[in-house]
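Here is the promised in-class demo. Please do not try to memorize the tokens; focus on the logic of going from shape to residues.
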């Protein structure tokens, strides 16, 4: 087992702190706690809901990875970079990241298990190697950990907002400004549990956007997320009246004609977990994305301006 020691950054439930500090899900963290694998200030705690004060030391014995429940599948996936610790892939639009109800096969995890020699076990048997996720219909760059040490290091970078993530997005309508920042908390929608929504009691969420090119009835943006909430870009852009084009959950019923959700994770930069070097990589947009932008373009000869 890997022994991880955390310092509580605020007062919170034990399962929340363990999940945030290790990159595991809250359900996985709760199982570790119930199994007696967590100590708070030197005392064993077995209740996930235990209140932990700010500054307390939390020790977690992370179990070694077990055989993944997902099966290997020979599914083509573009690997942009790989070494002994990490892999960076270009996820296609329409691919679910990890197995779940209704999607037990054909996921990115199934493909990774076939393509790579090893994956970290911190995310549990359903999410081996998965450090962060992309929505099913969002394409683009995604970081994968090949061992637990790399996973924990990368998870800490995510938590401390030390990674740089930029997306290309086509949004409905014309932007009145060249750039903007959206700082609105996000929580699960009380009306529709499949959706997220702006909520005063939600988690802090920040998104920055820059206009790359005005299009017919829409605009191409570079979107930089400072936090990583579920559906963050989609909810934030809808909240300012510019939903992502082609969005079946948050989009316009009669928006611009596009073949897919026009959101692509374009660049990712982070500190390598072993070498400490700053790594910056990009994933080229798929042809369907490029073709859709070309059809909306005001000047047909203009090249696609890519995010930095």
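The designed amino acids, position by position:
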């Amino acid at each position: 087992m890997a022994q991880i020691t955390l310092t509580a950054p605020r007062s919170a439930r034990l399962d929340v702190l363990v999940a945030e500090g290790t990159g595991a899900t809250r359900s996985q963290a709760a199982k570790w706690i119930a199994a007696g694998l967590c100590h708070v200030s030197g005392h064993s705690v077995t209740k996930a809901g235990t209140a932990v004060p700010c500054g307390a030391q939390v020790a977690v014995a992370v179990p070694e990875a077990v055989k993944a429940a997902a099966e290997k599948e020979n599914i083509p996936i573009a690997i942009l970079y790989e070494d002994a610790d990490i892999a960076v892939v270009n996820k296609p639009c329409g691919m679910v990241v990890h197995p779940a109800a209704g999607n037990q096969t054909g996921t990115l995890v199934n493909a990774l298990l076939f393509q790579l020699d090893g994956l970290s076990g911190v995310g549990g048997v359903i999410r081996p190697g998965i450090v962060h996720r992309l929505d099913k219909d969002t394409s683009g760059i995604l970081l994968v950990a090949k061992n637990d040490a790399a996973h924990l290091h990368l998870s800490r970078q995510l938590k401390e907002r030390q990674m740089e993530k930029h997306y290309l997005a086509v949004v409905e309508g014309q932007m009145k400004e060249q750039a903007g920042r959206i700082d609105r908390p996000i929580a699960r929608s009380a009306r529709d549990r499949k959706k997220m929504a702006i909520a005063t009691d939600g988690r802090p969420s920040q998104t920055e956007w820059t206009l790359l090119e005005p299009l017919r009835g829409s605009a191409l943006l570079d979107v930089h997320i400072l936090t990583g909430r579920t559906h963050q870009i989609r909810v934030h852009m809808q909240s300012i009246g510019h939903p992502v084009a082609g969005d079946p959950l948050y989009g316009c019923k009669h928006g611009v004609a596009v073949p897919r959700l026009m959101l692509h994770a374009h660049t990712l930069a982070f500190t390598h977990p072993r070498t400490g070097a700053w790594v910056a990589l990009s994933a080229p947009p798929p042809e369907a994305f490029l073709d859709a932008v070309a059809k909306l373009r005001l000047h047909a000869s203009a090249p696609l301006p890519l995010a930095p």
